[in-house]
Amino acid sequence: MHSFTEENYLKAIYKLQEANGLIVATSALAQVLEVHAPSVTDMLKRMAGKKLVTYQKSKGVKLTEKGRQVAVGIIRNHRLWEVFLVDKLGYKWDEVHDLAEQLEHIHSEDLTNKLDMFLGFPKADPHGDPIPDANGILPKSKAVLLSTLKMGERGTFTGVTDHTPAFLNYLDKSGISLGNSIKVKAIEEFDQTYTIQLKDKKDTVISYKVANSLLVNKVETT
Amino acid sequence: MHSFTEENYLKAIYKLQEANGLIVATSALAQVLEVHAPSVTDMLKRMAGKKLVTYQKSKGVKLTEKGRQVAVGIIRNHRLWEVFLVDKLGYKWDEVHDLAEQLEHIHSEDLTNKLDMFLGFPKADPHGDPIPDANGILPKSKAVLLSTLKMGERGTFTGVTDHTPAFLNYLDKSGISLGNSIKVKAIEEFDQTYTIQLKDKKDTVISYKVANSLLVNKVETT
DNA sequence: TTAATAAATTAGGTTAATCTAATTTATTTT
DNA sequence: AAAATAAATTAGATTAACCTAATTTATTAA
Q1: Of A3, A27, A178, B9, which one has the greatest count of Cβ atoms within 10 A?
Q2: Mean pLDDT of B143-167
Q3: Chain A neighbours among B 115-174 (CB < 8 Å)?
Q4: What's the CATH number where A195 sits?
Q5: Whole domain around residue A44: which residue ranges?
Q6: Residues B54-104: pLDDT tens digits?
């Protein structure tokens, strides 16, 4: 079995690999894991010995297939536990991250699959992030940032790229919830402020920063 | 926060303290924790430094009030998660121990309490062991071993002292379940074999070893 | 009450995961 | 292309939790 630390490294490498291309830098890992660079170098060597990553000195790391499997398994756990916390225990979407960071390291494929069934095989976690299936397959989403939509275009709000409680709370306060249909009514040239229309017809003004943190499934205007 | 290891020591000390009197020996801990005696000595010194135990060189340890609080908290977690696994995920009572050993170390009082509510504030885990309340109060049970009952006496089966899957399976196979009413029909002098009558009137023969692992609430014959 | 046995501790090491300070390797900038 | 800057690595330590071998302290038996 892998240690919590190894699993956290694997998850971090996976996410950085997704976000910023193929090879992951020591410094990037040090930053997200909140440790110092020499600790990362050290750990990567150990993990390379276990064939979890391929490590190229002074260049960075990639996950091996084995490493990717473990990483995706942890992400599956994390997201399923988040659904449990929100759907079953009544937590709010901005409260579950730290708890899921603990629960994701429970080692039992069988438990994960039973939990999945208990939750009704959810496709996404409370933030809209897709849940990998038992084979580690993660459905490719075609969601785009709201900030890429042009005047008059529409979409359905399906996820966030900023998972901080502060941002999630802002969305709650503004009445913007997953599944909402959103139409771009206006984009202010000067500061890229968006005026959007929510399903309930109320117009809302959001900053570029917000528009750039919301994922939508674009509705093609046929 | 305490490490998993510390928590496991605390739990072990608590259980040995309950079972065998007040002071707990290094060797007893080494045995249940499956480590060697010098490791225990080492750890106990560290834990004494944190005021979790009082350590008397060459004599043994006791929990401090602080240590007891932590230990009971872990036991509460463990038993609540066992209820979750059985009641919600469909596990059998002989399958949940190892998983609960992992889940018990999730650090969140709030999660524990929400779980408790979700489960309907159960009083006992699937093996009949009482669940401490949020204040660490464990109801004193007045259950006795079936092996202490005399001919003709009755009781309700409320718990086990042997939690091994082998024993639990044996009970399943024999149709002996928590809550069953049991009457002692005969006790063989020669080998202390018990003949018992279950609620459904069927007579069953059990060994002394089995009778000595079953807890019952004795029904006083008025 | 001394001798034998059992239990516990000390001494000295190991491993995973971290750190700081110093050095080396890469990448930019001039 | 050389100099400056940034990133990464090496060297050497630390801490928690464990180990084995040797020694000391308790307990039990003769």
Answers
A1: B9
A2: 96
A3: 115, 118
A4: 2.30.30.90
A5: 4-63
A6: 999 999 999 999 999 999 999 999 999 999 999 999 999 999 999 999 999
